[in-house]
Input
Amino acid sequence: MLMRTDPFRELDRLAQQLMGPGTWSRPSAMPMDAYREGDKYVVAFDLPGVTTDAIDIDVERNMLTVKAERRPVAKSADVQMELSERPLGVFSRQIVLADTLDTEHIQADYDAGVLTLRIPIAERAKPRKISIGVESGRKEISG
Output
Protein backbone atom coordinates (compact mmCIF):
# COMPACT_ATOMS: atom_id res chain seq x y z
CA MET A 1 0.00 0.00 0.00
CA LEU A 2 1.36 3.40 -0.99
CA MET A 3 1.20 6.12 1.66
CA ARG A 4 1.77 9.74 0.80
CA THR A 5 2.88 12.07 3.53
CA ASP A 6 1.94 15.72 3.71
CA PRO A 7 3.68 17.61 6.53
CA PHE A 8 1.02 20.32 6.56
CA ARG A 9 -1.98 17.95 6.74
CA GLU A 10 -1.10 17.00 10.29
CA LEU A 11 -0.71 20.68 11.22
CA ASP A 12 -4.12 21.45 9.67
CA ARG A 13 -5.70 18.56 11.57
CA LEU A 14 -4.23 19.79 14.86
CA ALA A 15 -5.41 23.36 14.23
CA GLN A 16 -8.91 22.07 13.42
CA GLN A 17 -8.98 20.03 16.64
CA LEU A 18 -7.88 23.02 18.71
CA MET A 19 -10.34 25.40 17.07
CA GLY A 20 -13.16 22.88 17.09
CA PRO A 21 -15.85 22.68 14.46
CA GLY A 22 -17.25 25.85 12.98
CA THR A 23 -20.32 27.39 14.59
CA TRP A 24 -22.80 29.94 13.24
CA SER A 25 -21.01 32.66 15.22
CA ARG A 26 -17.50 31.45 14.26
CA PRO A 27 -17.66 29.50 10.99
CA SER A 28 -14.71 27.86 9.25
CA ALA A 29 -13.66 29.01 5.76
CA MET A 30 -14.58 27.00 2.67
CA PRO A 31 -12.36 26.71 -0.41
CA MET A 32 -13.50 28.52 -3.55
CA ASP A 33 -12.55 29.45 -7.11
CA ALA A 34 -13.64 32.65 -8.88
CA TYR A 35 -13.29 33.48 -12.57
CA ARG A 36 -14.94 35.34 -15.44
CA GLU A 37 -16.60 33.29 -18.17
CA GLY A 38 -17.90 35.45 -21.01
CA ASP A 39 -20.52 37.86 -19.65
CA LYS A 40 -20.72 36.12 -16.26
CA TYR A 41 -18.63 36.02 -13.13
CA VAL A 42 -18.48 32.45 -11.74
CA VAL A 43 -17.77 31.51 -8.12
CA ALA A 44 -17.48 27.82 -7.15
CA PHE A 45 -17.42 26.61 -3.53
CA ASP A 46 -16.37 23.13 -2.38
CA LEU A 47 -19.07 21.77 -0.08
CA PRO A 48 -18.83 17.96 -0.20
CA GLY A 49 -21.24 16.14 2.07
CA VAL A 50 -23.53 19.16 2.49
CA THR A 51 -27.20 18.90 1.54
CA THR A 52 -28.89 21.75 -0.33
CA ASP A 53 -31.19 22.49 2.63
CA ALA A 54 -28.08 23.20 4.75
CA ILE A 55 -26.81 25.93 2.37
CA ASP A 56 -27.76 29.59 2.84
CA ILE A 57 -26.94 32.23 0.19
CA ASP A 58 -27.57 35.94 0.87
CA VAL A 59 -26.79 39.16 -0.98
CA GLU A 60 -27.05 42.46 0.84
CA ARG A 61 -26.01 45.49 -1.21
CA ASN A 62 -22.76 44.22 -2.71
CA MET A 63 -21.87 41.63 -0.02
CA LEU A 64 -22.39 37.97 -0.99
CA THR A 65 -22.52 35.56 1.96
CA VAL A 66 -22.55 31.77 1.61
CA LYS A 67 -23.03 29.64 4.74
CA ALA A 68 -23.26 25.86 4.87
CA GLU A 69 -23.40 23.26 7.60
CA ARG A 70 -22.03 19.73 7.37
CA ARG A 71 -23.90 17.69 9.93
CA PRO A 72 -22.75 14.39 11.40
CA VAL A 73 -24.23 11.25 9.87
CA ALA A 74 -26.48 9.35 12.26
CA LYS A 75 -24.73 6.18 13.37
CA SER A 76 -26.09 3.12 15.08
CA ALA A 77 -25.00 2.18 18.59
CA ASP A 78 -22.65 -0.58 17.42
CA VAL A 79 -20.49 1.73 15.24
CA GLN A 80 -17.04 2.54 16.59
CA MET A 81 -15.24 5.44 14.86
CA GLU A 82 -11.67 4.55 13.89
CA LEU A 83 -10.69 7.73 12.06
CA SER A 84 -12.47 11.04 11.59
CA GLU A 85 -10.79 13.63 9.34
CA ARG A 86 -13.79 15.16 7.57
CA PRO A 87 -14.64 18.42 9.31
CA LEU A 88 -18.15 18.99 10.60
CA GLY A 89 -19.82 22.22 11.56
CA VAL A 90 -20.50 25.52 9.83
CA PHE A 91 -18.55 26.91 6.87
CA SER A 92 -18.87 30.44 5.55
CA ARG A 93 -17.43 32.79 2.97
CA GLN A 94 -18.14 36.46 2.27
CA ILE A 95 -17.25 38.18 -0.97
CA VAL A 96 -17.55 41.86 -1.81
CA LEU A 97 -19.07 42.07 -5.28
CA ALA A 98 -18.23 44.89 -7.67
CA ASP A 99 -20.95 47.38 -8.61
CA THR A 100 -20.58 46.13 -12.18
CA LEU A 101 -22.30 42.82 -11.33
CA ASP A 102 -26.06 42.23 -11.58
CA THR A 103 -26.92 40.78 -8.15
CA GLU A 104 -30.64 40.56 -9.06
CA HIS A 105 -30.02 37.67 -11.48
CA ILE A 106 -27.61 35.32 -9.67
CA GLN A 107 -28.00 31.64 -10.62
CA ALA A 108 -27.04 28.93 -8.12
CA ASP A 109 -26.41 25.26 -8.97
CA TYR A 110 -25.23 22.45 -6.70
CA ASP A 111 -23.72 19.32 -8.21
CA ALA A 112 -21.27 16.71 -6.90
CA GLY A 113 -20.50 18.73 -3.76
CA VAL A 114 -19.74 21.97 -5.63
CA LEU A 115 -21.94 25.05 -5.28
CA THR A 116 -21.59 27.21 -8.41
CA LEU A 117 -22.89 30.78 -8.55
CA ARG A 118 -23.13 32.58 -11.89
CA ILE A 119 -23.39 36.36 -11.59
CA PRO A 120 -24.08 38.30 -14.81
CA ILE A 121 -22.10 41.41 -15.66
CA ALA A 122 -24.47 44.42 -15.53
CA GLU A 123 -25.40 45.99 -18.87
CA ARG A 124 -24.03 49.37 -17.77
CA ALA A 125 -20.60 47.79 -17.23
CA LYS A 126 -20.32 46.17 -20.66
CA PRO A 127 -18.21 47.98 -23.27
CA ARG A 128 -20.24 49.85 -25.87
CA LYS A 129 -19.62 52.01 -28.91
CA ILE A 130 -20.42 55.70 -28.82
CA SER A 131 -21.52 57.12 -32.15
CA ILE A 132 -20.38 60.57 -33.18
CA GLY A 133 -23.01 62.91 -34.54
CA VAL A 134 -22.16 65.26 -37.41
CA GLU A 135 -23.85 68.64 -37.65
CA SER A 136 -24.88 69.70 -41.10
CA GLY A 137 -23.72 73.10 -42.18
CA ARG A 138 -20.96 75.33 -40.88
CA LYS A 139 -21.25 77.80 -38.12
CA GLU A 140 -19.18 80.92 -38.09
CA ILE A 141 -18.22 82.55 -34.89
CA SER A 142 -17.89 86.27 -35.14
CA GLY A 143 -16.55 88.38 -32.46
